[in-house]
Structure formats: C-alpha cells, structure tokens
Amino acid sequence: MRLLILLIFILGPNIFFAQQKMFELVETIKSGISFNNIVKDSREQNILKYANFYGGGGVGLADFNNDGLTDIYFTGNLVGDEIYKNKGDLNFENMTPSSGIEDDGNWSSGVAIADVNGDGLLDIYVSKELYDYQPERRKNKLYLNQGNFKFIEAAEDWGIADDQRSRQSVFFDYDKDGYLDLFVMNHPPNRGSYSPYMGQNIILPEYSSKLYKNINNESFKDVTKEANLLRTGFPSSAITSDFNNDGWPDLYVTNDFDIPEFLYINKGDGTFSYETENALRHTSFYSMGVDAADIDNDGHTDIMTLDMVAEDNFRLKSNMSGMDPKAFWNVVSNGGHYQYMFNALQLNNGNGSFSEIAHFSEISSTDWSWSNLIADFDNDGLRDIHVTNGLLRDIRNSDADKEVDQFVKNYISKYIENNPNQGNIDIWDILPLEDVLSILPSVKLPNYMFKNKDKFSFENVSSTWGIDKLSFSNGSAYGDLDNDGDLEIVINNVNSEPFLYKNLSVENTTNNFIRFKLKNTQNKSSLGTKCILFTSEKAQYAETTSIRGMYSSSETEIHFGIGKEKKIDSLEIYWPDQKKQVLYSPKINKLHSIEYNPIDFISKSKFENTFFKDITLNNNMPKYFHKENFYDDYKKQILLPHKFSQSGPALAKGDVNGDGLDDFFIGGASSSSGELFIQTNDGGFVKNLSSPWGKHKFSEDIDAAFIDTDSDGDLDLYVMSGGNEFESQSQIYLDRLYINDGLGNYKFEKHLLPDIFESGSVVSPSDYDRDGDIDLFIGTRLKPWHYPESGSSYFLMNNNGTFKIDSNNSLLLKNLGMINDAVWSDVDNDSDQDLIVIGEWGSPTIFINKNGVFNKKQTPDLDPYKGWWYSIKEVDIDKDGDMDLIAGNLGENFKYKSSQEFPFELHYGDFDSNGDKDIVLSYYNYGKQYPLRGFSCSSQQIPEIANKFKEYDVFASLDLNDIYGEQLNGVLNLKANEFSSMIFMNDGNGNFSPKELPYRAQFSSVNEALTNDYNKDGITDILLIGNMHQVEIETPRNDAGIGALLLGTESGNYEFSPTNKSGFFTPGDTKRMIEIETKNGLLILVANNNDILQVFKLN
Question: CA geometry: angle at 998 spanning 995 and 999, to 5°?
Fold first, then answer.
C-alpha cells in the first residue's frame, strides 16, 4: 500500500489511466438509436450510375427543444431522416413519426442547423441530391421548428427549395446584418462510370452553388452573382471562418475531382474575392470533408481537408492506378491549381497565405476519408483530429475496375450475339448487377483519431483511445451530449447503426475544461463570434460555426480544454457586430451562458513595425524575373524523384566597379541571360550594359562568385553551369570566367579555366594553399540523365590567374557523390581553411587542410546523418570561438520519411538487362520495405514487372525483395536516414553534435541561410529560405516554406518570428539569398526559380 501511494505521489494519478480508453462505444440497446442508413444498389440507382452512391449521410447535433440537452438528427440516403430527443444519460428517443420530418423517399445528404427565423428555436435545412432526371425529388427541405419536436416544411415559402443536387449547406451572416444567410453547395450530375452524363461537359453555370441572402428573417433571395460566387465545381463540404482576421466571415469550399478548392475572402461590401491560387500553395485532389480551427493557438484559423489515399502499402498501391503527368499538368494549366491526393493541413500564416503541412504532422493519409472534426477531445488544451473512413465497395481498386469494365463489355457483346434482333436495349435491363458489384472488394476500415502533441505533431491514437471499430463511416459531429464537460462523437454509417462514442476524458484524466454558450438577447445569431481565453500559460482562440466535416453540424458551444489549469484569467468575446465583451475569472469545469452585453467597439489593431519590409516594387530596386526553360527530366528517367533542370538562379555580390558599393549578379536559366546590377549612390540599382554572359545564355547558371582571380584589385566573375537538360559532358556545362577591366566591364576568357564539362552545383573560393591568390572548389551534382550517378568534383589551383586542376587533392573527390553546397571553415583551429561539403544521399563530409594538402576527416559524429542536404553555412552560434554549422536539409514535410531504423533508400542498376540503369526508390511501411512507386509507373521503367506480376493487387502485396530479389545485390544502394535541417555544434576540437532547427524551420527544404543580429539584441539570428517545386507529380511540392526568421535567445535556442511580425515572406521556389549594404540600410535579396527577384529592407 505504501508503494502504491508513493507511485501516485511521484508519477501522478494519470499513470493509472494511461492505458484506459478515452472513448466508449454506447450500444444501441443503451442509446435507443436504431437509425440505419441502408444503401443497396438497384437497377434504378447504383454506384455505376452515381459516383457518390456510397457517400453516406450526415449528423446534426443541436438542442431542438431548449431543455439543455443536445439532440441528434440523422440524414438517410435511401431511408428516411430521423430525429432523436436526448433524454439524458446518453439515452435517446426517436421523435421522427410525430415530428413532421418527411420520409419522402428522396436522397438526403447534408444537414445544417440554425435559427432561421429568429424565434429562439433551431431549424433544420436538409440538402438533397441524386435522381438526375427527377428534379422534384431533389428539392432541399427547410424544417421550421415549432417547439416540442414539431416541425413544418417551408423551403418553397422561403425561396430555398433548391433542386440542383445539393450536397451540403451552411448558414452564416455574410453581410453582418444580424440575419443568417445560406450558402448551398450544388453539384453537377454525379456521374458514375456508366452515367448518361459521362463524357459531357457538366461544368455549367446552372450547376453553380448559390448564396441566399436572408431578408428580415422572412425569406431568402438569390444573390450568388452579385456576391461574385457564381462558380461551378464539384463541392463536397464548406466551412465559414474569418480566415484573415478582418472581422468578416470568409468561406472555404472543398471540391472533388479536378476543380480547385474555392477560398472566398469576404470583402465586406457584399462580395467575395476568389483567392485560392494566391493563398494556397497546393491542395487536396479528391477533397471531401473540411474543418477549421486554431490548431496551434496562435490566433489564426487553420484548415484541414480530406482526400482518399491509404496509409498502408497494400491499399495504397492496389487502389492507385499510377501517375499521369499529362493529366496533372492539364489540371494545372486549366486553372485547377496544384492538387495532390493527400489530406491537406493548411497552416494559416497570418498574412492571407497558408502553408500545407499534412506530411509534417503525419495526418496526410487516412484512406477513403469523409468527415473530419478538429476539437480538444481530451481536454488538454490542444485540439485533436477525428476522421471517418470507409467506402462500401472499393471502386478505385485498379484490378477490379478493369475487371468490371471487361465484364460489362463481354456480357453486352455476348448478349447482342445471342439476341441479334433485340434492337435498342437498356444496359440495366440485361446486366446482372450483383455479379458486377461482386467484383469490387468491400473492406470495412477503422476511423482515425490523432492526438495533438503540440507544435503540429500528431499521434495516431485510434486504437488506444478506443475509436477504431471497423465500419463504412461518413458524416460525423461532436458535442457534449451528457453535459459532463467532454465531447462525444456521433457518426453516421452505411449499412449499420450509427456510432455514439461517449468521451471518458472527465472520468479518466484530471484535465479541466470550460464551456460557453453565447446568446444574443435580440434573437440574432451568434455564429461568427470569436472568443479568446486567457490563462496563466497561454491563450486559446475559437470561433463559432456549426458546419464541420462532411454533411454534418456539430454543437455551436465554445469548448476549451485547459489541461491542469485551475484558474481562468479572462475571456474576450468579439461579437459579429464588431463589439467586444470581457468576462473575468470565469469558473472552470462548467458551462457558462453568456448573453450579449458588449462594453465597446473593437478597436482597430495598430500597425506594428516588422523587422523587414518588402521593397521589391520600389522604383529604384532591381527588376528581374527568372524565366525557367521547360525541360522534361522524366523522359530520360521515368522514376526520377525530382527534376534537376530547375535549380537556379545563381546569385552573387561584390563591388565590381570599385566605388565601395555592393553590386550583384543573378543568373539565368537555359535560354535566358543573367544580369549584373550596379548599385547607385542613392541605394538603388541599375543594369550594367556590359553583358558578355548573354552569349552563353544556353547554359544554366547554377552558382556564381565574385573573386579577384588575377590579383589586379578588382572582382572577376565565375559562373557555374549545371542542370540536366543536356547529355553528360556537353560543352554547355563548361563553367565561365569573366575578367573585370576595373570599371565593371567584363570579358569572357575561356583559356583561364580547364575544360571541365560537369553539371555543377557550387563554386566555393578560398586561398587554400595560402599563396596569396584565390583557389576554387568546384562541386558537381550529378551525371546528367544518369541520376544518381555523380560527376567529378575538383579543386582548382590558381596559377597567376589561370586555373589548373589540383590533381592530387582532386583524387579525394572522385567518388564524393552528389554535391549541393560547400563551405570553407577552420575546423581544426590551425588557421587554414578546411572544406565541408554536403549533398544528396550523404552526410556532411570534412576535408582537413594541412599546408594545402587535404585528407578526409573521420567523422563518426556526422556519418549517421545521411540526408538530402541542400545548404551549409558556418557561424559561431554559441560565441565560443569556433565555427558551428547550419545545415539545410529536405525538411520533415515531405512524402518521403526516414530514420536511423527505417531509412529511405535507392537501388540503382540495370534490373531489366536492357543496357540502361533503373531507379528503384524504397520506403518502410509498418516495418517492411516496399518500392516507393506503384505498379503502373514501375512497369513503365521496367516492363518485365508488368509481365511478371500482371495485377496491381499482386504487386501491392509484395515487398521490395519479393519484387526485385537477387537483382538488388551488387547494385548501387544509397540511404537517407535524416531529413531534418540541423545546427551542428562544434566542441572546439572539430567534433560536432547535432541540434535540430525549430519545427517551423522543418516545413520545407532549406536552400540558404544567413546569420546576423536582425533584431539588434546582441544575439545572432538566422534567416532561412527554401522550397522545392520540381518534384514528380505523385509527391506534393515542397512549398510550405515562406522564409523563416529565427531569433536567437540568451539560452542558445531559436524562436520563430511569425511572418506578420518579421515582414519576411518568401513563398516561391527560393534558391539563393544574399545581404547587400546600401546607404539606406541592409537589404536582403532573394532569388526565386521562375519568379521575381525579391528585395527586403531591414528596418
């Protein structure tokens, strides 16, 4: 007994709850909920006619009779809707028979709940779809609440009996007149593979979603066109929130198929602006559910959307037909934006832009998902994520899809052969539907629950929390159904009773909560009200909205979990009419009813000075657009992980005309010339008319350096050629040296460089032999058209202005690998410059310089960190007199994952004996190693795979060794086990210890780093840029980077400065960055691939 008490004292009471379930499924006999959304294919309607036939129904949670208990509404597809009264203790009574809710035999999808007429009772709006040729059966329903579970249907009277296949609707006060308006998500014909609409253009204006304005709580008026919302898509879900914090509710609509998401920003004048391409770098493809909440408690609403890619290797590959680059780029060029078949977590950057980080958070793949809910389910102060999952039949199973098509063709052909005089026939009169459908696999799946571990890190706790029962689950909603202070989850399933999960957080943890029910005494809606809760530890932000996930409406109460907090400082309430109300020290662990009683108007926030100011468009700033040439790297190597022909531009600075002012050179892509900009006395820049590099515009300018090669006191220009457009050893890869005449005029001098025709990556100057002139390290990235083979890197020794290959030292570099960057640093503190190089598929490598002779250093401290390193910078981080290293890596937000135990790997060899070597990338899934790429694209590279395995399911079931076997032996095998960007701290003896950069620096690749005291507090700060857009189309672009200012602290750590405070915003495909001093202050120049040169001024 004493030991038990001691354990409780030391470890706390939660130690005994660690393995307990967080949720308990309430059985039907206890709940009284007998609803069952039975969906059965028939001749009249089936999955072959309607693509969303297995899409399921929704859930609506609300207190319909104002008794303080949350009731439930279920929508049915082929069965009638049902409404249940909460009798307490999670027991419900079916009130449908006497309620006035019609079982009209029509297909209900979404349910939206709001007090439409302002009488204090919550009304119900049901969206209808299906039935392509029976518009009367598609009319949406408005059930006006008469009290005591009595409703009358009044959609026609109110002007919102929309019959254009509505999937869901959302109430919100878009014009802030106090009356709830209605956005209805209409769909074109939901064509299946055998729909009469297949092959027709259905993106027509008449199928557009609609915005209805509420006229004095008496009727609605269609204002779609006036509001600039007349846009047709395949909408699945929508959510409203003030995404840009300007006080007006905005709208986010997910779209299925190749239509982009619709992000509509409310302009406050009755209209919306379409901002998808401006605000979002990329999105989901087959977007389903959407929810929005402030996940990281920074005061900005983040967005999550769902797609349909599986987590496990078998379902991923068996249900994936393969890449189609032409189709992908057609979507992009036709205005569909960059779409990928993954869930998307859009981090709100606070400046009108979002960064997609689902792979960083490890929530990107949840199979065929429908509805997501973001809420604090364990009351720890962090919002978790629940996802419903499952489809009655796997209609995208690649083998089954082909078999169905062949079965139908053969059956019809045989029928016609046997009945030659039949005449015109309807396929549905003869086709044995059950036989066809039996071909399609039917696999129940578990739903997902992700626990928020802070800093956008989530853990899959579906099983440990008791939320993983197999099902075909669709719509979902949350609410405190038993009034105990935690959130229950209700899920509408296909062909089984709904799930009612009782939340056990109050019972099984010591976490606290506080809840608020907002009321407007004038019976005007409180939807869109914002609340900020302040405790001693942090602030939490929430906004009221009812529509969440898919098809469904959750509670509108504001729920905050507060963990172990015992006291609330205050709650700030910002009502939709821009008035503010403050509640001080509200009691915890209770629901507070807050009536509208504001004290003042919300004051406009004062503009705060940022550390940087974007001055790109200023008149005297340099104007340059890097125009990338088109080249398809994948024609040479189908399974290349990313392109190598888009790595520029080069960027270098130096005083070229001896006036004491920094000038700069920016490189061009192949077919475009670079430019030299001269700084003027007023701090501006003008183009230099001398441009001998224009003669070499077919070379891709990858890197550049200003160096005094001939020791005449002026700066010459070395420009490195690289890329992947031309065959190996092409003369176009020859680097170029331009000699300065002392006035900033340059002349190309070919004879001063050796004939090296490698695809380069970095030129790094240093007088490594200490003879008084500048020598060079020349790093090469790859042998063109033969990734991952690398070219040769070289040391070039300066001999009176002419460079020769330093043969002895260069031997060390022969098999160095794919180099991306290099830095000179005195690692061993002997006053000469050692060389550190980094690259793809390797760890940082150090060459120790002893009197001009190099030896490779043994680095057991660095060897384990094999990554895709892109940049390296030396800086004395800890001010101890030795130089530490900032190393930029791929980042943690990529599809590829790696670790010491489970590395990301590449095998390279001639697997089909055709004389060409093949790329085989592999990854680990649940501890087993599989090919990264699927059956289709693997077969394109190695046709023998298709001949050997024939079916997607077979290929999907096999691991790497099963497929390639002994062919893996003896081929080149490269591994990466670390993708995090790092600081390597020098212990003073040339040994390094790793330290990950802050998590906000891991959202994309880091291509460049600068260090300076940017906030002038005496501590070194770090400025980072990076993205990688040029990836193969099955992998989302590395585009979440927006630039990162990391402010150094006295403790030696770094803190991310939000974009709206730093003023540093670089969302493009950023490659290079330099500092330039001017009379007006320090400038930061950022070179973007295929985009403008950006200029920032340090304030």
Answer: 120
Give the number of residues written for the chain.
Answer: 1099
Question: Distance between CA 377 and CA 383 in Å, rounded?
Answer: 7
Name the DSSP class of 395.
Answer: T
- d(CA 540, CA 379) in angstroms, rounded, equals 12
Non-local (6+) Cβ contacts of 897 within 8 A are 904, 923, 979
Burial (0-12, 13-18, 19+ Cβ within 10 Å), 775: buried
d(CA 1030, CA 629): 13
Residue type, position 583, single letter: L
In DSSP terms, which residues pair with 840 in a beta bridge?
A: 818, 868
Alpha-carbon separation of residue 551 from 17, 388, 428 (angstroms):
34, 12, 30
What pLDDT, on the 0 to 100 scale, is given for residue 5? 39
The owner of tokens 């949840």 is 366
Distance CA 169, CA 494 (A): 21
The helix (H) or strand (E) run that includes residue 1071 is strand 1070-1078
The predicted structure's pLDDT at residue 323: 72
**Nearest Cα to Cα of residue 835 among 898, 775, 918:** 775
Residue 564: DSSP 8-state: T
Alpha-carbon torsion (161, 162, 166, 169), positive or negative: negative
Write down the pTM of the prediction: 0.96
- Residue 539: enclosing H or E segment and its boundaries? strand 539-543
| 416, 417, 420, 423: CA torsion to nearest 10 | 10
SS3 of 31-57: the string is HCCCCCECCCCCCCCCCCCECCCCCCC
Do residues 1064 and 1047 make contact, with C-beta atoms less than 8 angstroms apart?
no
Q: Measure the CA angle with vertex 333, ends 331 and 338; round to 5°.
A: 55
Own/partner pairs, 729-733, CB within 8 angstroms, 24+ separation: 729/757, 730/757, 730/784, 731/757, 732/670, 732/698, 732/699, 733/699, 733/757, 733/758, 733/759, 733/760, 733/784
Tens-digit pLDDT profile for residues 501-547: 999 999 999 999 999 999 987 778 899 999 999 998 899 999 999 89
Strand partners, 579: 601
Residue type for 333, please? S
- Judge contact between 533 and 568, C-beta under 8 A: yes
> Can you tell me the distance from the alpha carbon of 462 to that of 22, in angstroms, rounded to the nearest whole number?
10
Q: Whole-angstrom Cα distance, residue 492 to residue 85?
A: 17
1020 and 1012 in contact (C-beta within 8 Å)? yes
**Beta strand spans in 256-358 (E):** 262-266, 272-274, 283-284, 290-293, 302-305, 339-340, 344-348, 354-356
> The sheet that has 473-479: what strands, in order across it?
23-25, 499-503, 488-493, 473-479
Other residues' Cβ atoms within 10 Å of the Cβ of residue 135 = 12
Q: Is 96 left (phi over 0), alpha (psi -120 to 50) or beta?
A: alpha
Any bridge partners for residue 666, and if so which? 651, 675
Closest by CA position to 629, among listed 544, 530, 701: 701
Contacts of 169 (CB under 8 A, 6+ apart): 110, 112, 125, 127, 140, 182, 183, 184, 185, 547
The pLDDT score that the predictor gives to residue 14 is 44
- Please tell me the distance from the alpha carbon of residue 996 to that of residue 894, in angstroms, as a whole number: 17
Q: What does the pLDDT look like over 682-720, one tens digit per residue?
A: 999 999 988 899 999 999 999 999 999 999 999 999 999
Give the DSSP letter of residue 398.
Answer: H
| DSSP label of 326 | H
C-alpha pair distances (Å), 548 with each of 113, 236, 285, 308, 1012: 12, 12, 19, 18, 45
pLDDT one-digit tens code per residue, 252-263? 999 999 999 999
For residue 960, which phi and psi values (nearest 5 degrees)? -60, -45
Q: Which residues of the chain have pLDDT under 70?
A: 1-19, 603-607
CB atoms within 10 A of CB 143: 27
pLDDT score, position 424: 82
| C-alpha span between 676 and 704 (Å, rounded) | 12
